[in-house]
Design brief:
This protein is 39% helix and 18% strand. The chain is an alpha/beta fold. The strands form four sheets. Strands 1-2-3-4-5-6-7-8 form an eight-stranded parallel barrel, surrounded by eight helices. The protein has a three-stranded antiparallel β-sheet with strand order 11-12-13. β12 and β13 form a beta hairpin. The structure holds 3-methyl-2-oxobutanoic acid and zinc ion.
Amino acid sequence: MSSNYIRIFDTSLRDGEQAPGASMTSAEKLEVARALARLGVDVIEAGFPAASPDDLAAVQAIAAEVGQTPVEGRPQAEPPIVCGLARCTRNDIQTAWEGVKGAKHPRIHTFLATSDIHLQHKLRMTRPEVVARATEMVAFAKSLCADVEFSPEDAGRSDPEFLYEVLAAVIKAGATTLNIPDTVGYTLPDEFGALIAGIIKNTPGAKDVIISVHCHDDLGLAVANSLAGLRAGARQAEVTVNGIGERAGNASLEELVMALRTRADKLGLQTGIDAKQLCRVSKLISRTTSYPVPPNKAIVGANAFAHESGIHQDGMIKNAQTYEIMRPEDVGATQTTLVLGKHSGRNAVSKRLAELGYPLEGEALARAFAEFKKLADRKKSVHDADLIALASDERTQAPELWTLQDLQVACGTTGLPTATVRLKGPDGKLHVHAAVGTGPVDATYKAIDHIVRTHVQLLEFVVSAVTEGIDALGEVSVRVRQDDQRSSHGHGTDTDIIVASAKAYLAAVNLVLSRQTGAPVHAQKSSVPADQPVS
Ligand code: KIV
Ligand code: ZN
């Protein structure tokens, strides 16, 4: 591997999932891991197996499938490394090993804080105790797995001399990657670069292992700090898609990768990422976590390549390089192209879906095609983004305990907003209820609550347009919570925004109910039984 190669370690499924409300189902995690592997990431941090049996099962599923599947375009088509996080305890490390051992290239990532603030107030440990614990636990991890990563948590605020001591000890104990986290996003780029340079220079054995950077974005400096660390000699970057993560999030994968690529003249570093997939993976993460991408987000935002002012448009017409430092197609942000309409056949739809990275087959394809036909009847033109929305709906659904059959709303400036909802229940029967609310969405949700006989708190409700124009496909993401349970999210798409709202709410409610009943959450929709009489 070239000495200028930067390993991309994606932690969207672990640190990213720690963003409030961003939790994903096992099926969604598997879907994301497949997409990350296709994108070309070198390491997938699949989760924190000791956190819950669900996390362990998700990591095992990813290790068994994604961690064993060759990826075209990667060196020797090797599957990515699958990594599991563990605190410095035997139980965590053993559980992390249970999670990742099914992968062809498993990794255990263990961490222990090294800053005085954490030692004094959180761990209540002395420095010698930290060195002893880290050494013992890295040695234990090494007895299970050849590839061991160690992170001194809050390294950005740790005494560098103490870091050299801890890191030298864990290298001796068998660590092969040393990850340096700026856990609270406190450092400035020159400081973080100097920290990495100091570690490489002063830690015995540091030149024989990979040094990694892991930066948080509390001051908006995560990518800048990561770049400074890489310029100082680090050769792995820990990032998340769309920069999701704790608080202000982590360094964003797409921004870091495109900075390395666009400024290769200055930086001279490369990654194995297929940048053309960046926008697609960004959308997938946004949908599965219900974290919308702001329009002005670098690289993947809807306006990242939009030019509004006359002067800019004039320059663009004359030569795109006047106002663009990257080509939209380089990151997969091709202008939405009109490819399909209501006369298009199943083969054309299936082929275009496969080109977009959604190779649907059998019943899944039949359902997506039926949805496409309905959409094509309502819209003059179906864009790639519409197709991606339909395909993603198909692939990341909670079990359909309740399905929407019909919805009718009456609303306006006079009268009471009223919704009549007809749902098919898990018993296969149809249930109808009409409710009044403060608006059409509220009325719809009240009617659903009444039929389903559950009450959830709506924490978040986000509406966005998938494509431009009056006939755009609308997308609604909701996040709900019942009592003290963890929050569940759902999304729905339709040209009618109230129908999309109902679908999103029902998907989230189905997830809440499936967690209560223990019903499995599938990556594919279950088949819908024939209509039954109204109960
Ligand atoms: O930010 C952090 O310190 C972490 C560690 C677990 C690597 O996420
Ligand atoms: Zn972190």
